[in-house]
Amino acid sequence: MKLSAMFKILTNFGISNKVEYINQAFSRNIGLLTIEEQQKISDVRVAIPGMGGVGGVHLITLARTGICKFNIADFDHFEAANINRQYGARVQNLGKPKLDVMKEDAFSINPFIEFSMFSEGINESNIDKFLEDVDVVVDGLDFFKFDIRRLLFKKAAEKGIYVITAGPMGFSSALLVFSPNGMGFDEYFNIKEGMTDEDKYLSFAIGLAPKPTHIKYMDLKKVDLQSKAGPSLNSACQICAGFAATEVLKIVLKRGKLRPVPSYLQYDPYLSKLCKGYLIMGNKNPIQAVKMKIIKIILKKNKSVYKTQRPVKPNVNFKAGDMISKSVLEYLITAGIQAPSGDNAQPWKFEILTNQIDLYLVHDKDLSFFNVNQIASQISCGAVVENIVIAASSLGIGSTIEDVFSKNGNLVISVKFSCKGIEKDNLSDYIWKRHTNRKLYERRSILSATLSKVLASTKTIQGAKLHVVTDKNDLKKIANIIYQIDQIRNEHRPLHEHLMSMIRFTDEEALEYRDGLPLKNLEAGLIGELFLKMTKQWTVMNIINKIGIGKMVARHSYQGITHSSGVALLTIDGSEVQDMINGGRALERVWLTLASLGLAMQPMTAITLFYQRVALNRERDFQLKHQKILNKIEKNYKELFHLVGKEPNRNQIMLFRFGHSDKIHCRTLRQDHTTLIREDIKK
Ligand SMILES: Cc1cc2nc3c(=O)[nH]c(=O)nc-3n(C[C@H](O)[C@H](O)[C@H](O)COP(=O)(O)O)c2cc1C
């Protein structure tokens, strides 16, 4: 509404000037403020840099208190992500300058307000003008605007102006008052030249809230100092405004007791906690230094480099005769390679053709003892294909797997795409969420309705069958079998050496190779991680096996089974390469289904791949004592999964455990899809 229209309304209410308006509009303040004080604050000028989460609500709260002069600054426009907390962020204001919106909002409270507007925000060149005639500064700057905040506080102190900063921290608000005659910004926060941005933000945070109550309930994983974002609630911004407006009154009316820094005040309604204190030496206080170290450790732990890079889903309008764009095919490949592979070896490459993706199995990527006759890699390639088919369906694209053939010794699978109307496969979202979980799960049974969904998950893949064991006694029997298999694994030098070569012991290593198993992904705990580091060399592991400590590792696998809701064996009818690919497709469907049901899963493939080797008459690849163990447990194992008799051609694809679990600490990485697209293939 235009100002003239507002004044017209006021005239209808018998108000024709500022004094009359103040008398009426703020009459209910009287009793807490005197009439003289109310008049006095109408002449006070408050500067508020920033019209966002706290700045906007500061302006409105102070306008309703009766402050009539403001210097306000902001260069930003409202966007949807501001709606949760910023006063002026409303649908009709999206895209509009924050400054204009807030000025209009304030006018609707008091059309007699005088504004000095700084639409370029505050900066070195306008800071003096911004502070001209100002009585108090109320800090409304974004948490991460550090350098300009520092300058603002310094300039204000030089000009004899108080600065109030009230920051939302979780559900709480933390208030600091800076007196021009007291401790300065740099002194209180212990800011030194050459500090990194991250250290500056942390110093600001721990100085602002010396009792960080919010850490108890805030998901610190959502605090990203690098991308300058963190959680922030409107309710906390409102408390900030209440805190700050009270301090403004105390300062300008010289009433009540002011407690400038190093005093602090925090209120956390979530925990019903009021914290006030005197932080001797500010952040130079040794306790603050310890806090800084602890928070840094927590943030470093949470700063996961192991995030799944989920690309934006492309918009596709694919009609008969159209060519699918390269970017869409690349999206499908990216979805494909989220598939699991033995030790995350990622044994695949791709070629992009017209409306077609060819997947090549790359032998050299996994030459481990486990990967007998490349069966594990064939299974993984099957899983990639299934992901591609599912992701294509989510774009309305139909797929057919046209060829599985060997060319120049390479296994090639062609996925051809067509525009036939296809229903979206509901598993598509879980392509990006599925992962291996090696934690100990909760000993909880699974609902029969959930189990039915798991059992039905492979029905589209011909010849696939899932045999599930959930009976507690049977699970113990399987645990015993796995215990013995795990001992073979621990005592097998090539297997041990291969596993160690695939563990990425540092973040740097993990990021360089983008394959293998990041140490934290193994969920071994601190002692387990130490054990893995110590046993890197076979000579150490060999000694550990000889003195019997290796059994502890097998014991962990035993517990893995007894803590699960169930164990399942996925089999396929047939033993050709095509069957293994289908087995991999079925595996991916089961795994995605488990993920969609919120269930964790871990493959336990040593046993299935050992018996694959035996089935290929390569029993002698094992030491004699291990051959004996395999012979001894085979009957029990096959009986537990009804593998004996009827279907001699049924082949094992994967044994896995599943159940309810906490989240894992870190995911595995994938190589950049662009490095996986083959260019050396001439058609
Ligand atoms: C054929 C195959 C065999 C696997 N065997 C095991 C296994 O014995 N133990 C295990 O913990 N994980 C096993 N995995 C899981 C892989 O290590 C895992 O898929 C890979 O590291 C990628 O991680 P992600 O599943 O979390 O995406 C296997 C995966 C495949 C495809």
Structural write-up:
Helix 4 crosses helix 10. The model has no long low-confidence stretch (mean pLDDT 93). The termini are far apart. 40% of the residues lie in helices and 16% in strands. The protein is α/β, with parallel strands linked by helices. The chain is elongated and about 100 Å long. 41% of the residues are buried. The chain is built from 23 helices and 18 strands. Bound molecules: flavin mononucleotide. Flavin mononucleotide (FMN) is lined by residues 340-344, 376, 379-380, 435-436, 438, 517, 602-606, 667-668.
Blueprint of the fold:
Blueprint: H1 3-12, H2 18-25, H3 35-41, E1 45-49, H4 55-65, E2 69-73, H5 98-109, E3 114-118, H6 127-130, E4 136-139, H7 146-158, E5 162-169, E6 172-178, H8 185-189, H9 197-208, H10 234-253, E7 263-268, E8 273-278, H11 286-302, H12 326-336, E9 348-353, E10 356-361, H13 375-394, E11 398-407, E12 410-418, H14 448-456, E13 464-469, H15 472-491, H16 493-502, E14 503-504, H17 507-513, E15 517-518, H18 525-534, H19 538-546, H20 551-562, E16 566-573, H21 577-596, E17 600-603, H22 606-615, H23 624-640, E18 650-659
Parallel strand pairs: 1-2, 1-4, 2-3, 4-5, 14-15
Antiparallel strand pairs: 5-6, 6-7, 7-8, 9-10, 10-12, 11-12, 13-16, 16-18, 17-18
The chain binds flavin mononucleotide (FMN).
